[in-house]
Amino acid sequence: MKSGRLSFAVRNTIYIMAAIWGAFVLQQLPFFNTAAWGIIPRYTDNLKGVLTAPLMHGGWSHIVSNSAPMVVLLLMLFYFYRKIAWLSLTLIWVLTGLAVWLFARGTSVHIGASGVIYGLVAFVFWNGIFRRDLKSIVLLLIVTILYSGMLYGVLPNQPGVSWESHLFGGLVGIVVAYLMRGFNVKEDDDLEMHSPASLSEGEKSNYFDQGTFEKTLREREKLGRDGR
Question: Within its chain, how far is the Cα of 44 from the centroid?
Fold first, then answer.
C-alpha cells in the first residue's frame, strides 16, 4: 500500500512540475506574451489567467523559489490525502485565481504558483485543526516548522510581489480544508491515536503478590493479641 501511495504522489507531482517548467520554457520564446496568460483583475479578456497564471513565472529566481515548496507540498498532498488530492488542488488552484481576478489590484499582472503554494500550506495546516487525527496533526506541525515565515507574504505593499495571491490562496486553503473535512482520507496503513483502554477487574494485577499483604496482616493481628 505505501509503495503505491508513494508512486502516486511522485507521479502526479512530476506531472504538475513538468507543466510548470514546460510553460516556463515556452515563456522564453521571443513571441510569447506572458501578460496575456496572467491574471489582470476584472479584465474579461484575461479570465483564462485564472487557470494559467500559476504556470507563468517572471524569471529563473521566481520559478526556482516556487519549485521547492511546491514539490514538498504536492508530495504531502498526494501521499497523505490521496483520496481528495486532485479535488482539493483543483479547488485551491481555481478559487485562488478567481479571487485574485475579482478583488486584487487592477493595475498589475499577477503570475506565479505562490498563490497555490499558500493555499496548500493553509490546507495542510487547517486539516490538522479540523480533523485532529494523528496524520493531520503531524503534518500541521511540519508545515508550521517549514513555512511559518510565509505569513509575512500576505502583507501588502511589497514591490513586485502579488501579496493578494498569497492572501487569497491562504484563505481559500482554509475554506477547502473545511469543505473536505468530512471526506474519508484514512488509508489502511495509517497510524492512529488510541485512548488507553480501562482494565476490567479480572485484568487488573497487583505489583506485589496479594498473598504478601494477607500474610503481613495476619502477623500484625497475632502480634497485637500477644501484646495484650
Answer: 32
Residues 6+ apart with CB under 8 A from 82: 5, 8, 9, 185, 187
Cβ proximity of 109 and 40 under 8 Å = yes
Q: Are residues 59 and 16 in contact, defined by beta-carbon separation less than 8 angstroms?
A: no
Residue type for position 87: L
pTM of the entire predicted model: 0.81
Which residues touch 70 (CB under 8 Å, ≥6 apart)? 16, 17, 20, 113, 116, 117, 120
Q: Is 13 exposed, middle or buried (0-12, 13-18, 19+ CB in 10 A)?
A: buried
pLDDT digits (tens, 9 = 90+) for 84-120: 999 999 999 999 999 999 999 877 899 999 999 999 9
Q: Any idea which residue has 500550506 for its cell?
A: 121
Record the cell numbers describing residue 63, joined without a space. Answer: 520559478
Q: Give CA–CA dist 102/117, Å, rounded.
A: 19
**Amino acid present at 173:** G
Nearest of 11, 5, 10 to residue 135 by alpha carbon: 5
Residues 6+ apart with CB under 8 A from 138: 128
Torsion (CA) 120, 126, 127, 130 in degrees, nearest 10: -160
pLDDT, tens digit, 9 for 90 and up, residues 162-200 = 899 999 999 999 999 999 998 888 876 665 555 455 555
Burial environment of residue 107 by CB neighbours within 10 A (0 to 12, 13 to 18, 19 or more): exposed
**Best CA proximity match to 130, nearest among 100, 74, 88, 95:** 88
